[in-house]
Each structure stands twice: as C-alpha cells, then as structure tokens.
Specification:
- The complex is a heterodimer of chains A (305) and B (435).
- By secondary structure, chain A is an alpha/beta fold.
- Helix content of chain A is 37%, strand content 14%.
- In chain A, the strands form two sheets. In chain A, strands 7-6-5-8-9 form a five-stranded parallel sheet.
- In chain A, strand 3, helix 4 and strand 4 form a beta-alpha-beta unit.
- In chain A, helix 1 crosses helix 5, helix 1 crosses helix 10 and helix 5 crosses helix 6.
- Chain A is globular.
- Chain B is an alpha/beta fold.
- Chain B has two domains: 108 residues, Urease, subunit C, domain 1, CATH 2.30.40.10; 307 residues, TIM Barrel (Alpha-Beta Barrel), CATH 3.20.20.
- The mean pLDDT of chain B is 94.
- The chains are: A alpha/beta (305), B alpha/beta (435).
- Chains A and B meet through helix 8 of A and helix 3 and helix 4 of B.
Chain lengths: 305, 435
C-alpha cells in the first residue's frame, strides 16, 4: 500500500482495502506483535471523542508505540493554536504518525500538506471518517463470511447522510466491497440528488427492507437536527427512519457508528440484539487501527519481511 | 356524501355536452351508473331521466382553494354550508385550506376533518394540512403522519412562508412525504399595506402593498421548486409578472398555478369605494394585471381557476378597508362571473374555461375533470341563458361577503352531481322524472 497517511477512502481501491482488513485480522489473532515498536504516534483531537480516541490509543500502545495525546483541553489547542501550527510542531518533534480529529471538513488534508509524518484522519467535520468505515467493513466481513461475502449484498444507509462524515466514508467503502447501497432519509437530510451520489433513495426503513436490505446502517441524528427545521419531530423521525424490533424479522443486520440515540434512530431493545453488530464494530476498532498505523508508518513492511 | 334518495342510475338527456378532456362537444345523452359515467351517446334509456335540453353539461368543477372555516369559525362557514355553496357553484371537488382554529397541523386534526367530511360534505373535499406548525414558518409539520392521517397536500396559505431557507426545507420534506405543496406567495417585508399600492390607494390614502410583495415571493418559490424537485402549486396568482414567472418555470420545475375569478374580473378601482367588502389578499390589482391574467389563463401560462372562497362574518367586513378582514366568497359566483366577463366579453373560449375549472384542477387532485366512460360521475349542469342578480338571499354560504353583491350575472349552475348523485338541484321537476 503506497500511501502517505489515510485522509479519505474515496481513492482507496478494493485491493488496498483487502490488504488493510487482512492485516487487521493478523493483529486480532495476535500473529503480529510489537509492530510499532520505537514509533511515536501523536493523537491530536481538536474535537471531543470517546471511542475513536480510546481505540486509537489502544491500537498504538498494544503494538508497542509511544503515544502522545493532545486533546482540546490542557494543550496548546486550548490556547487557540492553529491546526497547522499544532501539527507542524508535532511533526518537528518527531512524530511517526499524526492521528487528527477536527470539527471542520478538509482539516486532515490541510494538515497533511504541512507535515512529513503521515496523517490519519480520525474524523473531520462532515468530511470523512475512514477508519470508521474500515472497522465497519471488518465487522461485516466477520459476520458475512469474509470480504468476498460482501459482494452484491445490499446495505441501506439510514439517517442524516447530509451531515455525516461516516456516510461519506462508508459509501465508497461499501461500493468498493461490491455492495449495493441505498440511502434512506428525508430530502432535508440528503445531499442534492443530482450531485456525486448516484444512489437509490428510499423513504423509510420498511422500504429499505422491501428493497432487500441485508444491512441497516443507522446514522446518528445530531441533537441540533431535532429543532424542527429539517425534521418535524423525533416521533415522526423514529417512525419512518428508526429501526425497531419488528424490522429484525427480515434477518437484516443492524449497524451504528455510535454513540446511539436510543429511541431515536434505534430502539433500545435492538442495540444489543443478536442482529446488532454494534458491539462488534467497537471491538473491530483496535485491530483495524493498528493495521492502519502499521501500514501508514511503514512498519507493516518490516512485519511482512 | 349525503344520500338524497336518488337512484343509482340516471340518464341526462340531450344536454349540450362540453368536455375538453374527451373532446365531446354537442347535444347528447349521458348515462350514469354506480357512481360512474357508463355511456355517452344518442337515445340512451334508463329508469330515471333528467331532461337537460337547453342546458350545458361539463365535467364537475374542482376548486383547489377553499376556506370552510371548520374547525373554529363555524359561524362563518362549516363543512355542510361550505359544501352546499360549492355544490351551488357547480363544484364537485374542493381542497380545504389549513388556516383554521386550531390550525390543521397535527394528524389528529386531519383525521377528524376527514371523518367529518365523509359525513357532512356534499362534494368531494380534500384536506390540506399546514406546511409548518402553527403556520408560523419555523418547524416542519409531521407530513408523513399527516399524509397517513389523510392529508392530501400541505400549504402555507393565508400567511406565506417568511424565510426562503425554511420554505426550501419544507419543499424537500414534502417531496419525501410525497405531498404537493400549495403556496401563498407573499413577502411580508414588502406587504405592509392592506390594498394594492396603486393609484386608487394613493388617492384614497389607504396603505398599499406593492406588487413586488407577491412577485418577489413567487420568484423565490419557483426557484426553490426547480431546485428541490418538489411538486409545487402557486395559488391565487394576481399579477401579470407573477404569471410570466410561472411561465418561465413551466418546464424547469414541477409547478402549476391558479388565479381567481375575482382577480380575473375586478380591479383596484373598487378600493375607491372605501368599502371593507373589497379587501382581499392578494389585493385587487390594476387593469393591466387583470387583463394579463386573462391572457395567461388563455395561453396556458396559468393552469386553472381556484376561488379562494373565504367567508367572513359581516362584523369583519362592514369596517373601513384598513380594519376589514381580507377575503371574498367564491364558490357560487365563479362560473357566472367568468362567463359574463371573459366569455361574453370575448376574452376566453367556453372550452378553455371548462378546461381551467374542471379538467386541469381535476387532474391536479386526481379525481374528476373528465366525462370519459368509467370516470366518476361528477357533473355540472349550467343554464347559460339565465340572468341572476347576486344578493345575500341568493347565496347558500353562511356568509355573504361576495364582491359581486348587487351585480347581475349571466349563466347559472342549475345542477351538480357527485358520484352519480345530485347534490344541488335547481332544475325544478326535471330530476327524477320517469322515462
């Protein structure tokens, strides 16, 4: 895999994705140890995060890396230092990889233009969240019998596509895996359909199941979308765009990048149901991120050698 | 639908049948059976016959813009009186606007209205729900649930939508809910007066609202309709410029538009009477606009006529213009006013008038507007020779705020049939005569 960092999945091909997932599986089985020994991984989180930050930190530490963690509290970020200045500083201090979370789309690409260390995008605004999409693919492969098992499967991406960085990463990831993708959302939460996304648009979870969805990929509805401007009410939203127990009879798998709004996009009794891959998604985060760190820092070559 | 004890089968004999949808034009018989048009031809027989020799028979008129004041102001109109007025005007189908009290913005209000319509309405009445909660132009209504409760469309009628951003989201959401949107185009930062801001208002010293209040809002709505792909209907177009804007967007958006009988026949000159009766929104315009609307209707730039039937109690109209409530009765005078002024005035063909009162709005609501065999038996019978003077005693509506009060009009609806059943009958002994 010839790449400096991981900013987006839009230009990552099918074989590269397969390579990442294979390496992640090696990490998960314990076949690769201490791959990042002697490396320094910097976590620069300009925006709050729980699972992504913890997952990256574990991924780096378990593989033997030194971890330097900057959060928006208690660092130069809190003092208002600019994104570029922060990452340049980390770069000059000798970081081997910079993991960046930022509130603005394009932040990771901007950072990458100013550093020699690879930048791994851990979520930038409404832009991209590539490691989320990779861990989703990983969890799905485990459930459906490997990467080839995803071919021609149907996945419905349900909810606020317009404001979702997860959607912008999982759509190209699912398409590269050979899956058919439909979007399920009111038009107020979709990009204009004449745009880049030339996908089937459906208007309810029921319609998604009629379409033959094997996977219901639920997106989080942000609190600030619940004011009535784009959706009228949580009651109507959950009635048409929420998954509840009655939808599980179809055998469809349920996924969600977290954190879940129980009772909004997903009813409480579905979250930990057997049909739910949500815990598997979280579990997949560590090995997938270890693999991404190993590949972007060049450590994977020495592992393979 | 009211059951009047009429037979399920009826032959309307020797009416001058005029139906732009099928091209029928001439004296013939029409047989109705089981609520549908069963047969059109010569010498038809049946157990009951209506001798319609000398009368004209059209597909039933459809009015997509009516205020029946239920719930909340049943002293002015209710479903029974409003539908009786509609039937008296030849309307077999109506869309009820949501600016009632309470406003039709919740599913329970819609389902209640739908049930009452089934019991109380003489004609087919559809419920428009509000586009925004409280028609306040902020929060979207639960359009998916409103649709399931029986709403036919959503509208901001009466107020308009203040913000283009809010309107855009409303259109996008309505498209997902598969509901058409009826828009009242009015920019409140411009519409600060009570009548058209023209010569009559200037001379009378009455605060005017410029035509731009409508034109700017219409342009905004059309641009957003084109961008969102929503099915949008612009109601009560009252200026020549707004009509031209609709024409420009005809092939660029899923858009239709109507104008009203009063904007096609009356002008701002009535403001000089200082009579609160003549206040209406959008206001009566100059002759230039009145004439332009007629041409736009003739040239298919505008799709159809809708009355904006808006009953008001006398205490709301017998006031100075500035204090009077805006709105006119519309159902009962629509055909006669248009026939008298436009058809007899040589401005429009009778065929086109029927197309704009029956076929096009019928297509828009999805029922009626055609005398094709198998279509619902919704018919309007008119005596084109009858002259009548509009007076509060001649009006069926519970209110009497007609701008044509005291005027003598030519052409009168004498019979209205909905689903094969007469719901308005001024034909004397002719209905129900044995063959």
């Amino acid at each position: 895999m010839e790449t400096k960092g991981l900013l987006t999945l839009e230009d990552v091909g099918r074989e590269d994705i397969r390579e990442i997932l294979d390496l992640a599986r090696a990490f998960a089985k314990g076949r690769v140890r201490d791959a990042l020994e002697g490396k320094t991984v910097c976590l620069a989180f300009f925006e709050a995060s729980t699972r992504t930050a913890v997952s990256f930190e574990l991924a780096a530490r378990r593989s033997g890396a030194h971890v330097i963690s900057l959060s928006e509290k208690g660092s130069a970020i809190a003092k208002g230092e600019s994104l570029v200045d922060t990452v340049v500083t980390l770069d000059r201090l000798g970081a081997d990889a910079i993991v960046l979370r930022h509130q603005a789309a394009g932040a990771a690409a901007l950072a990458a233009r100013h550093t020699s260390a690879p930048v791994i995008n851990a979520g930038d605004g409404c832009g991209q969240h590539p490691t989320q999409a990779l861990l989703d693919l990983y969890a799905l492969c485990e459930a459906l019998g490997g990467f080839e098992g995803l071919q021609n499967r149907r996945v419905a991406i349900i909810g606020d596509v317009l404001h979702s960085r997860v959607a912008r990463s999982v759509i190209p990831a699912f398409l590269q895996a050979g899956m058919e993708v439909a979007l399920v959302a009111p038009r107020t939460l979709l990009p204009p359909d004449e745009g880049a996304l030339d996908l089937t648009v459906l208007t309810s979870v029921d319609e998604a199941l009629e379409w033959g969805a094997d996977v219901l990929y639920m997106l989080r509805l942000q609190k600030e979308r619940m004011t009535g401007a784009r959706i009228p009410s949580v009651a109507e939203y959950s009635r048409f765009y929420g998954v509840s127990r009655r939808h599980l009879d179809s055998g469809a798998l349920v996924m969600h990048p977290g954190p879940v709004n129980r009772g909004v996009e997903i009813s409480g009794d579905v979250v930990l149901d057997a049909s739910s891959l949500i815990p598997d998604q979280v579990a997949a985060g560590v090995c997938v991120r270890s693999a991404v760190l190993a590949l972007t820092t060049g450590a994977a070559q020495s592992v393979a050698a | 639908m009211l059951r009047n004890g009429y037979p399920a089968e009826l032959v309307v004999r020797q009416a001058n049948v005029l139906d732009p949808a099928t091209g029928l034009d001439g004296p013939m018989d029409v047989r109705l059976s089981s609520g549908r048009i069963a047969e059109v031809g010569e010498g038809l027989r049946g157990p009951r016959v209506l001798d319609a020799d000398g009368l004209h028979l059209f597909p039933g008129f459809v009015d997509v813009h009516a205020h029946w004041r239920t719930p909340g102001r049943e002293d002015e109109e209710d479903i029974e009186s409003g539908s009786a007025a509609a039937a008296a005007g030849g309307f077999t189908g109506v869309v009820m606007m949501p600016n009632t009290d309470p406003i039709v913005d919740r599913p329970v209000v819609v389902s209640g209205l739908v049930r009452r319509v089934e019991r109380e309405s003489r004609v087919r009445a559809r419920v428009s729900a509000a586009l925004h909660v409280g028609l306040a132009g902020e929060r979207l209504t639960e359009m998916r649930l409103l649709q399931q409760a029986g709403a036919f469309c959503v509208s901001d009628d009466g107020l308009g939508t203040a913000s283009a951003g809010v309107l855009r989201n409303g259109m996008l959401y309505a498209r997902s809910a598969r509901l058409p949107v009826i828009l009242h185009c009015e920019d409140h930062t411009l519409a600060t007066g009570v009548v058209h801001d023209g010569v009559a208002a200037s001379l009378a010293g009455i605060p005017g609202s410029p035509a731009s209040a409508e034109d700017a809002a219409t342009a905004t709505a059309l641009v957003l309709a084109a961008e969102t792909g929503a099915r949008v209907h612009i109601t009560h177009v009252s200026t020549a410029l707004s009509a031209a804007l609709v024409g420009f967007f005809r092939d660029r958006a899923d858009v239709t538009a109507d104008t009203t009988p009063h904007h096609l026949t009356l002008t701002e000159e009535l403001v000089s009477t200082l009579d609160g009766l003549y206040r209406v929104n959008p206001p009566l315009r100059p002759e230039y606009d009145r004439a332009g609307l007629g041409m736009a209707l003739r040239d298919r730039v505008l799709d159809f006529v809708a009355t904006d039937h808006a009953p008001h109690a006398s205490e709301e109209k017998e006031l100075p213009i500035e204090e009077a409530a805006p709105g006119f009765l519309g159902h009962e005078t629509a055909f006669a006013a248009l026939y008298t002024d436009l058809i007899l005035g040589g401005k429009l063909s009778l065929m086109r008038l029927v197309e704009t009162m029956s076929c096009a709005p019928g297509r828009w609501v999805g029922t009626g507007g055609s005398l094709a065999v198998g279509a619902p038996a919704d018919l309007t019978l008119v005596d084109l020779s009858e002259e009548w003077t509009v007076g509060s005693a001649t009006l069926v509506s519970r209110s009497s705020n007609s701008p044509y009060l005291g005027r003598t009009l030519k052409g009168r609806v004498v019979g209205t049939i909905v689903g094969g059943e007469p719901v308005h009958d001024r034909t004397g002994a002719r209905f129900g005569a044995r063959a």
